[in-house]
Amino acid sequence: LTGCAVTNTNSSLEGYILRTSNGGDNWSIVYTYKPVASSISFNKIAFADTNTGFATVNYYPCFKTTNAGLNWFIVGNSDWGAADLAVINKDTLLSVNSSGLGGGVYRSTNGGTSWQIIWGGGGNGMPSRIYMFDKNLGFTMSSSYMRRTTNGGFNWTIIAGESFLGMQFLDSITGWKTFDGIKKTTNGGLNWFTQQLPNLP
Which phi-psi region, left, alpha or beta, contains residue 107 (left: φ > 0; alpha: ψ -120 to 50)? Predict the structure, then answer.
């Protein structure tokens, strides 16, 4: 019954975290964010458990709740922002930034209080999307490359010719991703094959 969502920035330069307690029938504003520029807005919200959740914007800061989304507070020591976020547990988070200066994969092991870059360091091809199945297996997507890690984001290999907008794994070997259709993997994301879709009206 309980859920949270984030919004873009409106004409008043405000972005919002919303919360429902009745399965989405009604929503209330629980946090109002006033960014420093109109191009900055919330872009991800994810929960580690029932109480602990995180929301990110594409420029500092990162927001956290420890009471199921009722209250939110700023955490973090960075001004790079996050294009996307993967929550492993309430302590371990991975985020990505596509900036040519400070872009790469960042990791926090203390619930978002501090972050360290573990891969990247700027330049072309920095990731703007991340999916982690567990603490080891994960994928990033940049404008040019889809990459895969098996050691929690410290090393990445390119999966040639593939892209993703969304991804979901059933276990460590079977997963699906979307881009220009749906593809499936049965070997942990090393190879992908197209799924036959029904003819849509």
Answer: beta
- Note the pLDDT tens digit of each residue in 23-71: 999 999 999 998 877 778 898 999 999 999 999 988 776 899 999 999 9
- In angstroms, rounded to a whole number, what is the distance separating the alpha carbons of residues 139 and 150? 9
Contact 63, 50 (CB under 8 A): no
Tokens representing residue 172 in the block: 């460590």
Q: Which of 199, 201, 198, 162 is nearest to 183 (CA)?
A: 162
Q: In DSSP terms, which residues pair with 183 in a beta bridge?
A: 177, 194
Helix or strand run (H / E) with residue 199? none
Environment class of 201 (CB within 10 Å of its CB; exposed 0-12, middle 13-18, buried 19+) = exposed
- Structure tokens belonging to residue 11: 């004409």
Contact 130, 137 (CB under 8 A): no
Residue matched to tokens 């420890």: 66
Q: Are 45 and 64 in contact (CB under 8 A)?
A: no
| Side chain identity at residue 171, one-letter code | D
Instruction: Give the Cα separation of 91 and 177 in Å (integer).
Output: 27
Which amino acid makes up residue 126? M
Q: Looking at residue 173, what DSSP letter applies?
A: S
Find residue 28's DSSP bridge partners: 19
pTM reported for the whole predicted model: 0.90
